[in-house]
Amino acid sequence: MSTSLERAQLWLSDAYDAETRIAVQALIDTNPTELDDSFYRDLEFGTGGMRGIMGVGTNRLNKYTLGSATQGLANYLHQEFPSKEKSVAIAYDVRHNSDKFAKMVADVLTANGIKVYLFESFRPTPELSFTVRHLGCDAGIVLTASHNPPIYNGYKVYWNDGAQIVPPHDKAIIANVGNVKVDEIKFEGNDDLITYIGKEIDEAFINACVENGSFTKEGKEDIKIVFTSIHGTAVAITPTAFEKAGFTQVHQVPEQAIPSGDFPTVVSPNPEEPEALTMAVDLANAIGADVVIGTDPDADRVGVATRNNDGDIVLLNGNQMNTVLAYYLLEKWQEAGKLTGKEFIGSTIVTSDIFYDIASKFGVDCKVGLTGFKWIADMIRTFEGKEKFIGGGEESFGFMVGDFIRDKDSVTTALLVSEIAAVAKANGSSLYNKLIDIYVGIGKAYQEDLISIVKPGKEGAELIANMMVDFRLNAPKELAGSKVIRVKDFQSSIEKNLITGEEKMIYIPKSNVLIFYTEDGSKVACRPSGTEPKIKYYFSVSADLQTKENYIEVQKNLLAKIEQLKVDFNK
Q1: CA distances to 23, 190, 271, 309, 444 from 20, in Å
Q2: Domain boundary at 442, 465, 495, which?
Q3: Residues 382 and 504 in one domain
Q4: Packing angle of the helix pair 32-39, 457-473 (nearest 10 deg)
Q5: What is the bridge-based pairing of β-strands 444-454 and 534-544?
Q6: Is residue 203 part of a domain?
């Protein structure tokens, strides 16, 4: 295996431009640690594609790593569709270099004779998914690093159904990318093969979001909403979608309505983090708003906050938000007489088990896949024509309504969750109480939490790998005073009953994930992130709940149990 220095020296050849050669030589001369991290491996496709720090090197996002990925994709498209005119849609977010990267990627495709539909400016990721299907493209690309810090960027590939790539296409594309030599990348594009797109697609996308995310006009003029795009792409679409859906009291956080790859008003532009919604909550308190909605930079994730029964604004976690969304969709389908028993909702292995309960209550199936919306989209593809997908989501603040978009979609989700809040308010209730009503309806309250441990760089990747090995060799025997009775290992595809010793196969694609189940129904999962230098621990607990009056006490006990699980699991 070549060393990082040897790999870096290859980048000093004339195959690379002068600016790149100068930057690489500077790393060799002055910064061996950064050199090692920049060249010790090649960037890989994870659950969300290729994502990394911008800079020179094989482990960085730059002209050559993106060029190799795109040349490999172009080669694969020619293999898959040898006799037809091929087209690819490209979108990008507000990050530094995203627009330049998007044009460079477009040039590589057109240099390979592939037609490109390139957005004229930044757009939300879900609009790219929609566009691939709307225009009948063979693939799609979005340049984004989602909610990562400003030094990151990324590259996600979509197939012709508007979903992110899954097997066999992902492995085949990666194989093609691996075979690309730098001097084989065709950078000299053909602008005659580029069609710039914008307002016409926006209008079709917004209309589809409103159609799929709206069931009634009830209460929409009375609900007061604070919305923030947290400097991201949603500002281009979501305010118009709100207006078209009939919401008349939507207030944007003005400072965060300014697109910026620096995300200057937040520590992290991630609506999963309470801090990211601080300014929105402050505005909501100042104007007496009912609901707060915030989206991440590429507008696929959405965070929701609402007032509790004391009038305080509380942030719903991703499972709680998705609980309300899935339940409401099923209610509407039931009211319309559309439930036939051949419908399903989608979830993931690290998401709350409440979705099994909800599906059971309405007589539909709950299908569960690996983390990442590409797996929910894969369910839709697999069961197309046999079962109808209603909606689905994962704990990381993502939800998808119907199958007109095949990725998580903050635009339609924002409309739907606002409608739920509006209807609840019109009937003397609230979004918060709607959630409690659902818990009472299924007879059980759930509570979840998440720990993310960041381990950057080459050393961090090795530490995370060793942590997973240790969990397998030294699995916990007891958590929060309850015996661990079952373990699912998605890497070995084996579920083991620790009481009887019985083993069962897991028929889900292999992944480096472990889930521990305790005697009292608690669930703890551990999983290295596919797109970030993190290992994540997911905690989920539940308890019987028969009346709304008992919810606060039950929730308090569940939160205490989670804290104990964190202590026991993270020793």
Answers
A1: 5, 24, 35, 58, 58
A2: 442
A3: no
A4: 60
A5: antiparallel
A6: no
Q: Are 281 and 391 found together in one domain? A: yes
pTM above 0.90, yes or no: yes
Taking Cα atoms as reference points, which of 189, 127, 165 lies closest to residue 411? 127
- Residue 42 sits at the vertex; the CA angle it makes with 38 and 48, to the nearest 5 degrees, is 105
Domain shared by 335 and 483, yes or no: no
What are the catalytic residues? 146
Looking at every residue in the chain, the average pLDDT score rounds to 95
Indicate whether 425 and 484 sit together in one domain: no
| Confidence category of residue 469, pLDDT binned at 50, 70, 90 | very high
Rounded Cα–Cα distance for residues 218 and 198 (Å) = 32
Query: In the structure, what pLDDT confidence band is assigned to residue 459 with cuts at 50, 70 and 90?
Result: confident
Determine contact, residues 522/565, Cβ cutoff 8 Å: yes
Counting the structural domains of the chain, the total is 3
């601080």: which residue's tokens? 278
pLDDT in tens, 337-395: 999 999 999 999 999 999 999 999 999 999 999 988 999 999 999 999 999 999 999 99
Sole residue written with tokens 């024509």: 385
- List phi, psi (to 5°) of 544: -60, 140
Determine the distance from the C-alpha atom of residue 121 to the mean position of all C-alpha atoms in its chain, rounded to a whole number. Answer: 22
Shared domain check, 165 and 76: yes
pLDDT score recorded for residue 557: 96
pLDDT score of 142 more than 70:
yes
CA distance 157 to 89: 10
Q: For the sheet with 152-159, list strands across it.
A: 50-53, 152-159, 139-143, 87-92, 115-119, 194-197
